[in-house]
Amino acid sequence: HRLYRMYSRRLMNFLKMLTPAVEQASIDETYLDFTGKHDIEVEPVRSAVEIKDEIKRRFGFTVNIGISENKVLAKMASDFQKPDRVHTLWRSEIKSRMWPLPVSDLFMAGRASVRRLKSFGIETIGDLAASDPTLIEHRLKSHGRMLWEFANGIDDSPVRVERDEPKCIGNSTTLPADVTDADEADKVLKALCSRVSGRLERAGYQSGNICVEIKYSDFTKVSRQQMMPSLVSSADIIFRESSSIFRELWNGSPVRLIGVRASKLVKCGEPVQLTIEDLTKPEYQKENILESTINEIRKRYGGDSVKRAADIDHVREENGRIR
User: What is the pLDDT of residues 100-114, one digit of tens each?
Assistant: First the structure.
């Protein structure tokens, strides 16, 4: 994954040489706006092929490129036949190239939405495009309206050069074997909280709300959140709160997935109101300094460079030393 991130950064830096209007949607997906670049506007397909081939020459991997007047159609085009292809999906091509596709191929149409749409008799993107938008919105709320608009090629969202501020930072894991013991769950929670803390530190945020999610072996999901008395980023503090939430939430059934999410994010450096309890706890400042130091070491030398002894499954004593 580290190698993947490195090549992702190199690719994004290369794309920014072509146009400053670059919006990175994920580690391996991005939108580029070439409005006003006459040479590309005149021959977009030829230009896209040249970009695709240059990426392969520079980095050794292939990409798919979709071209259109807006983001949703460009995204749909990029998912046509792969790999190493360039596709267009102009508005004039929607009827012939997009509407015959199954509705599950529509961008942002998840499994739950597709099931509901099919229950209404909607099988293709064209079926959705021809449906009454008011009815779709009534049954699927605002997400239904968005899907109807996407099916009709409607998307006026700009290419955002700056990424939106995150609303939350979290991690979850599907367990290799169902957890049936709270102490075993704590081991998973500790690892998750360490990752969440590291991501908060790297992004420069503190959290005012902690949420724990559980998925049971029958795939039932439950979650509970707790407002923190003060902003936190320490893995130890997040773990203590998450463990407490888990024990209140868990009904004793086998657990398939555990997740921890930090929300109500505030940029580090902004004024923070501490509680009297925080100010009177000598370990409060010590914990935050320690966590910041650990995260800095991990950032430089990798996520496994520092571990707490409690996180290691097999710790034994040899010749008077802890190993």
Answer: 999 999 999 999 999
